[in-house]
Amino acid sequence: MGNSILLQTALALPNPDIEALIQGRTIAAMPRMFLNRGRTFALYPANLSVDLLPYEQHYRSHFLPIAQKALAQLNSDRVLIKAWARCESCKPLDNPEPLDLEALSRLTIWKTEGLQQILLQGRYIFLAHLRIYLLPQPLEMSVQSSGNFVSLPKSLTVTDSTPVLSESIFAKRSHKLKTFEPPEHPELEELQSALVHLSTTNPKAKQLEAEIKMFLGWSEKLPAAKPDPDLDWIKTIAQIGNSSDGNTFEKLVRKSCVKLGFANSNTNPKASLNPESTGGAGGLDFYCETPYPVAGECKASKHESVPNSVTAQLIHLGLTHLGQDRFDRSVKIILAAGPLTNPANQAAIGSKMNVIRPETLQKLVELKAKQPGSIDLLQLKPCLEQQPFGEEADAKVNRYIDDVREKLKVRSHIVQLVKDFLERTKSTSVEFNQLHGAYAFSMSPQPLKYEEMHQILIELSSPLTGYLGRIKGEDLGRDRFYFLRDLPLDD
What is the 3-state secondary structure (H, E, C) of the chain? Predict the structure, then answer.
């Protein structure tokens, strides 16, 4: 539930600054007076520091669209209070060096020129580190004269259970601000701001923008992800494969191949991957060109045995439409619900054909839909090219799926281990040597060698994954890692 706090006043800050605090873009504020550590207050949106400077001169260029929008939201009669804060530290910047102002600007939303102008006006710069918490419901109140603090129309009892940033990430951000360490990824900050405009109309831009915010440490939760709409048809693969509707099953198989990442230029309708059509009379049921060739036949119906004519047809149509060389280089798959007759199975083994059940295909495509980066077709290729073939091939594909799931479990466990360690120790990062020891004594899915675990941590801290952050050390064991976002598993 969190600790209960009674709020009676609100600190007046420029509305753009409050929006930046709520979004996790910054933890810094410039109150017009000194704030005692531990003091709590709501955040009252006003038009303060920008009344002496045009906002274009006050805020950094990448923040200007957000500042403009925040200022436009100000109402002459009513204000909306969305959050409250606890002051974690506050100090005046006495005669700061120009380089200090530049460093402060890089870590915040304010321009160096704007900070210099404040000092030229004879004002102090009080720099406060604020821990921000969201109110369960915004409070609407009438506009008050903008002193340093305004009285709330009624006392608010709040809890500290909804922080914008966790304690460990806030501590890391606060340390950077105190020491004026430069931001690690300024180019990503620029990209995130550019995506703000697109995110209102483009769902993919919105998702990317949210992921960048998490990687930068501005946010710890992605917006509630909507299930992949393709799951609606993916969940019918086994059902249709076990029916007599061979035409629909063939289309579902083609859609599945595309979903997994296979492609085909579709220049030959008899060796196609177009999910809206079928191979038709005399055509292959599906053919993939990239990242490697796959030729296949589909046979729906659970209650019918698959005769040898299906394997013979795959060979005949493959040679007809692909030629000997391309067909020989192709992975060969028969997707069938019913059992193969003994002659058909022997022919499939002899021709190196994988016989895969609709249930297995559904599991593979579901995993791809729920964990988009989990299925690597180039890692799947050796599985399909190696023995066993025939009906026993279904078991090896299931082993591949189980192996992928185990790898995901290990990675999810490591991410959670970092998160728990930092929360427990109140640290901002953990050294790899410590983490390796903690992993050995945790309820881990499987043991990992020293170098193997480090390699996984490098993978998880890549900007392309962004589950963890990494601070490179003098050697492998001295590398430090910190939490950015969860890696949830959906079984």
Answer: CCCEEEEEEEEEEEHHHHHHHHCCCCCEECCCCCCCCCCEEEEEEECCHHHCCCHHHHECHHHHHHHHHHHHCCCCCEEEEEEEEEEEEEEECCCCCHHHHHHHHHHCCECHHHHHHHHHCCCCCEEEEEEEEEEEEEEEEECCCCCCEEEEEEEEEEECCCECCCHHHHHHHHHHHHHCCCCCCHHHHHHHHHHHHHHCCCHHHHHHHHHHHHHHCCCCCCCCCCCCCCHHHHCCHHHHHCCCCHHHHHHHHHHHHHHHCCECCCCCCCCCCCCCCCCCCCCCCEEECECCCEEEEEECCCCCCECHHHHHHHHHHHHHHHHHHHHHHCEEEEEECCCECHHHHHHHHHCCEEEECHHHHHHHHHHHHHCCCCCCHHHHHHHHHCCCCECCHHHHHHHHHHHHHHHHHHHHHHHHHHHHHHHHHCCCCEEHHHHHHHHHCCCCCCCCCHHHHHHHHHHHCCCCCCCEEEECCCCHHHCEEEECCCCCCCC
- The model's pTM: 0.63
Distance CA 394, CA 235 (A): 19
**Given CA atoms 50, 53, 54, 59 in this order, what sign does their dihedral have?**
negative
CATH code 1.10.10 for 406-483? yes
What is the rounded average pLDDT for all residues in the chain? 87
Predicted local confidence at residue 259, as pLDDT: 95
Going from N- to C-terminal start, the domains of the chain cover: 4-183, 185-221, 231-391, 406-483
pLDDT, tens digit (0-9, with 9 covering 90-100), for 292-306: 999 999 999 888 889
Q: Name the band, by pLDDT with cuts 50, 70 and 90, for residue 423.
A: confident
* CATH pick for 231-391 out of 2.40.160.20, 2.30.42.10, 3.40.91.30, 1.10.10.10: 3.40.91.30
Alpha-carbon span 408 to 443, nearest angstrom: 15
